[in-house]
Amino acid sequence: MKLMVVDDEPIILNGIIRMIEKANTSFTEIVGASDGIDALHKLATFQPDLILTDIHMPEMDGLALIKEVQAQHYGNRFVIITGYDDFAYARQALRYQVVDYLLKPINKIELVGVLEKVEQTIRIEQRQIREHDLLMLKEHLLYDMPYEDMPLKPEQLHTLLPDPFMTILVFQPNEDTPMMTTERMKQLRNVLSEMQFKAYTFQSRFLRQTVLILNGMHVPSDAELQLACGDLVESENTQNNGLAIGGSGRLMDIDSLRELYMEAVAAMLFNRHFTNCSFNVYRKDAEPIGHELAPVQASNYLIAFEQLEKEMHSLHLHFPDCDHKIRLRELLLSLVGDHNQKVGTMPDVATHSKTTGQLLPFERRPEHSQPHTQAIDKIVSFVEQNYKLDLSLDVVADHVQMHPNYISMLFRKEMDLTFLHYLHTFRLAKAKQFMQDHPDWPINTIAELVGYENPRHFFKVFKKFENTTPGQYRLGSSSI
């Protein structure tokens, strides 16, 4: 972690830095600054997790520095250093997101205690950020949220997925079977982590899918998948749960994550209806990975397609755009064609293209037959009443009893924007109103009031949509 120490007395400044270095804390990158002006110059290139600053300094005192740092969005976590005579003044500073204060002369035990407390808070925030970033990734993969609408920068996605190869596995049980438990998902992640893969899991109860994202230096081999998933497959099949697993792996490409997921879904559907193998991984321009492909008798071929068609009807809102439906059909035909060529027992795939073509014209479910305007009004009303809560597409879909993909499709068609774009716009409008009506309220408080538990996420979204920081906006609105 990174730390900046600001004090105009060189002896105190160097003494604090030496104490921290000897204490073996998580703050391993430490930069010192001789006053507020010096600190601002260095903050242009050094972004600390915590700023430890004296209050009384020439040119720019500690509180002025904190205000400017917040306005420039250089940091939002501060500890102040003060003398006994400044105690009342220091208490005032707590209004400016100061997490703690230290009294001179600095006591090493107290200093380390404060740093450890801040470190714990930072780790909690980092976990929250990672969970939020994974939620954005989930909505991009499962619900086709456009990548450009995600408040994720490429470097943030690279933090989640730093290695060159990406693999997605999709697990789906039969309709009357419980989904994978949290403990099972944890076991999978642990096994794959031991194989040097970064592993993330999330679920969609609407699609009845557990999605496992792997990031590593290669696409997992047959043996690695068997080791990670073998016990799970054996256990589920023993219970006649009919678990189907499909996957896809390739070189990492941010723009093709959705395609990778669709390939995994296609492999899962193909695996369920056309093979007896435990899992099947689709590779572009490569042979599928998996156990031996079991031949499907010609007499059972049409039956398998009929079963597949029924399942595709249950997923008709999974890919609301026609292009996605066509792409999924192409992927399935490709897999069936490879399978046919390998085992040599199926009729020619072209003979059945008409059958698979029937997968495209999905009918809308009865619960989605209500007028579009009425459905939008219902969703908007729920958001306006609950924007302070931790809302996601899944949460809203569950409340209004609509499929997440249907909601996404409605917002694009009727409002020409994504649901997430609408949610952020509404929340930021509320935040700006709070800043105008209550200029003394801390930014963190306002962020929480409008539904952003993590202040850094609020700053990031505000900057993206308003092209300025919350602090700069507040200064501008107060001068009008």
From TrEMBL:
Q: Which UniProt keywords apply?
A: Cytoplasm, DNA-binding, Phosphoprotein, Transcription, Transcription regulation, Two-component regulatory system
Q: In which broad location class does this protein mainly occur, judging by the first location in its UniProt entry?
A: cytoplasm
Q: Where is the Response regulatory domain?
A: 2-119
4-aspartylphosphate: residues carrying this PTM: D54
Protein's cellular compartments: Cytoplasm
**Looking at the keywords, is Phosphoprotein present?**
yes
Pfam families found in the cross-reference section: HTH_18, Response_reg
Which ranges carry the HTH araC/xylS-type domain? Answer: 377-476
Q: Which Gene3D superfamilies match?
A: 3.40.50.2300, Homeodomain-like
Name under which the protein is recorded? Response regulator
